[in-house]
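Morning F.,

Quick status update on the modeling queue. The single chain you submitted on Monday has been processed. Sequence for confirmation:
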Amino acid sequence: MQSSIRGLRPPLPPEENALLAFSGDALAGVSRVSWTDGGEQLLVMSIARDVRFRGVGLGVVLLRQTLDVLRAVRDEAGAGCGAFARVDHRNEPSRRMFELTGFVYLENDFEEPNLEYWVHDLL
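Structure tokens below.
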């Protein structure tokens, strides 16, 4: 996850957005979102938090705030869509975080065997 934060360099591609979480003046976490290639569904690309904030629930808080933003984006676009995420099946904390925020497992990614698709209806 640290690499997601270190690798984030503005400007982002026009189809991507990032939500930044700060603790004081320290960047504590980042959420990256986009539309899927066809522009039909919203995609949570990554949720990352600094290791200094491990175990305090920042990931869940950031993902819930991300879902609020995605609902607003969906409503502004007049789209009737949900949100997708690809989660590494070996990363149990990430799987738990997505499940805690209302995502449900959909299917395995057939092109990348370690990844699973999860979906949230954004209701």
